[in-house]
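Re: Re: ligand-bound prediction request (bumping)

Still looking for help on this. To restate: I need the protein modeled with phosphoenolpyruvate bound, output as structure tokens. Inputs repeated here so nobody has to scroll up.
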Amino acid sequence: MQIQPCGPLRGEITVPGDKSISHRAVMLGALANGTTHITGFLMGEDCLSTIDCFRKMGVEINITDDEVIVEGVGLHGLEAPSEALYTGNSGTTTRLLCGILAGQPFTVTMSGDPSIQKRPMGRVMKPLREMGASIEGKNDNFCPLTLFPSELHGIEYRLPVASAQLKSAILLAGLYAEGQTTVIEPAPSRDHTERMFRALGVEIETNGSTITLDPPEDLHAVDIAVPGDISSAAFFLVAGAIIPGSELTIKNVGVNPTRTGVLDVLRDMGADITESNFRDEAEPMCDLTVKYSKLHGVEIGGAIIPRLIDELPVIAVAAAFAEGETVIRDAQELKVKESNRIAAMVAELTKAGVDVEETDDGMIVHGGAKPHGASFETYKDHRIAMSLAVLGLAAEGASRIDEPEVVAISYPDFFNTLERLGD
Ligand SMILES: O=C(O)C1=C[C@@H](OP(=O)(O)O)[C@@H](O)[C@H](O)C1
Ligand SMILES: C=C(OP(=O)(O)O)C(=O)O
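Reply:
Sorry for the wait, this slipped through. Here it is.
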């Protein structure tokens, strides 16, 4: 696909529903008693993988024009699937399902695409085994994973990485465990699981970095309105911030504080982003307006990293347009996403003439010289593809993106929205 440099981005857009919340809405809806109506659900491939896995375990899930309707089977109502579960490209589906499957009275195998088969699963296998789960994985760390029936008991577990997927897998297994389950986070990661548990009547307490769950008798279905995904909004926030003359409003974006690191960093870089129409339901949301402004380099590291982990590729693009040096550190987790996102962004930014160095845990971007268009590789990674598209819009001369269809993982309409804005 060709990407041409574009003029100012102006107007109002919406972005698709939050991916993390959409996954959890299907999973908890399936385990609840009663019917869950989900509005704003992300019809991206990852969330469709989650739907597919639950359908294979006997859950009726209907998709209409504006809702996903999940007929809950209750905590103990899942059925043994007649074939292996396929989790596609989705780390969230794979790891959260591990937690749920660990507590089921049947044997089940799960695997995904070539990228998912390279992503570490030992991090969830270890605590689940401590809870009594019986799990086998390729080389004891990778998909395919097979889970065998076992009795679970609660544990107290200190997470070695700030990962919401790991935290959620343990808490989901905790639904099936005897006694309390406690996880201790090294830094706050997205808390959508905890919020949704509370909404469904589960007793779960957060005390600083410690989260404790009491196994419930059952979950009560509630309707779920999914806000727009701030990780998808981030592409337009950066595009608006770096393309001269832009003024763009993104409506109904989820601004859960565990997800808003990208707003903090872009503002630190000098971006003009304002929030309006704020409302707080189970998840807070608002409209975000970004105006072009001159950016400068910043240092990004420490506890903010889990609050912006998926936005770092597009933040690296903002850094290329910012005056001075941007240092990204403590971001080793980027190496085990859909691709090695540090290596991918360093290679592709370099193609665009950006002065960037890879480090052990991030990168250093020496920004300010206008990048030029190039022929970019996406590494079959949706976030890399969209980050490079944003780079292409603001660069000098045309760019090409290979395999642009990978955006369908989290944002099927991304290029249509871009095109509409360009009109
Ligand atoms: O829990 C979630 O929904 C997610 C957690 C993050 O992964 P980690 O838990 O591996 O950091 C994030 O990168 C992913 O896109 C979604
Ligand atoms: C890392 C991501 O997702 P997942 O881990 O669910 O594959 C992502 O969407 O950027």
